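INFO batch 0412 | record 1 of 1 | parsing
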Amino acid sequence: MNNVRPQLTLMSEEQIQEAHNNVLKVLSETGVRVDSPEILQMLEQKLGLKSQDRIIKFSPEIVEEAIRSAPNTIDVYDRRGEHKLKLGEDRLRFGVGVTALFYQNPVDETLDIFKRENFRDLVRLGSSLKHYDVISTVGIVRDVKEELGDMYGSLEHIANTTKPLVLLVSDENRFPDVLDMFEHLHGKEVGDKPFVIPYFNPVSPLVMNAGTVDKMKVAIERGLPIIFSNYSMAGASTPLTPAGTLTLLMAELLAGLVISQTIKKGAPILLGMLPVYFDMRTMLNFYDPQSILVSVACSEMMKHYNIPHCSTSGSGTGWGMDLIAADTYWMNTLALLLSNGHLAPFIGDSLGSKSISPTTFVHAHEIIDQALRIHDGFQLDDMNSAVDEIFKVGPGKSFLNQPSTLRNYKSGYYVSGVYPRYSMEKWMDAGQPPARQVLREKTQDFLASASAPDDYDEFIAKGEEFIRRKFHDIL
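INFO prediction complete | emitting C-alpha cells
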C-alpha cells in the first residue's frame, strides 16, 4: 500500500548534534544542583563524582551511557492487565488532566473550587472519549481535609477508569501512600504490568529538587515507568531565546535521565518539556507559537536519543474552551502529531492551568479527531486513485453511486460528534445557536452519560477504608 503521509521536520542532523553538544557543555561545566542528600550521595558513590555546594557535573561519557541504557519503548497496560500502548514506537497519544485548583462548569463557565465530584466526573468523561488513551490527574481536591486531597483524588482517579493513569501527587509525602493504596485496590504490585506512570518535574533553572528525585527513586524501585518533564518561563527561569530555552531544558532532562539510570539501569522513562514564555508586562506565563517549535525540537532530540518523548498538549491558554485555547490546541496537536511525539497527557486546563473545563475535553477531542485524519494521510494506489471509475463516469456525470463512494461514504470524510453540519437555513431554523452553546450542551450530555467501571463501588469502599485506617488521626 502506498500511503501518502505528511511529516514535519525542524532540525537537520548537524543542528541536532550542535544542540546536543551545547547540552553536554552545560552539564559538564555548569552542572545541576541536587537537593536530596540521598540521591546526591548515590550519584557520588556510583558515578565516582564529587559535588560542591550540592552542584554536581556530569561528563559527556556519563550522559552518553545513560542515553544508551534507557529503554527505547515503554509498554503500558490498563488496570485490568490488557496491553494498551507501546510508547516510543507508536504515534502521539493523548490524555486529559492537570493539577487544577478550580473547576469551570459547562453550563455557564463559572469557577468553583475543585471538588471530589469534579474529579470523578472528569475522569469518567475523559475515559469515555476514544482518543484519550491515558487519564492524568485532573485536579487537586479541595473539599476534603487538605492533607488528604491527594488520597481522595487518587482514589477517584483509579476507581473511575480502567485506562492507564498519569499520576501527579502534589504532596510529596503522600506519594508512597498513594501507591500503597493502588496496590491494595489492585491486588498486585503497581509495577506488575504497569498501568500507572508517575509524573515528575525539576525546578528550572538546573535544580533537581528533593521532592522530585526522591519520588523518582520510589517509583523506579517499584518497577514503574516515569515521566520526567520540565517547565520553562522563557525570559525568567530559562533564556528568552528558543535555542537557549531548548539548551537549558534539555540539560535538565538529561540530568534527570542520568539520575534515573543511576537509580536503576534500564529504568523506563519518558522525557519532555513544557516550554512556556513569561510576559514581564503582565507577569503571566503563556504559550507562544515558538513554544511549539521548541516542543518539536525536543521531540527530534528524543528521536535522536531513541528515548520516548512526552510533549506539551498546548494547554493552559484561553479563558475556558474559547478561540484563544482553540488556536493553541490546533497548533500544538498538529505539529506534534506530524513530528516525533509519543505522549501528550495534559489536555483540558485553562486560565494559566489554574482551572480545568470539561468543554475543553470535548472540543480538544474534536481537534484530535481531525488532526489524526491529517496525520494518517491517504492511500495512493490503483483502487483509491479510481482512474477506471473516472473513465467509466466521464465528464459531467455523478459519482454518487460509484464503488469508491459506496465503499467510503461513512468514513471518507470527517463528521463531527459535537457540531451539526448545518446549512444556513437549518441553522436559522434551530434558533441560530452559537457554536459555544452547542459545545456546552453536548458536554453536559457527555457528562451525564459517562459511566463508571463495574468495580467502581468496590474500589471506592475499599479505598475509603484504606484511608480511614491509615489516616485515622487526621480524620
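INFO post-check: Residues 214 and 231 are 19 Å apart (CA to CA).
INFO record closed
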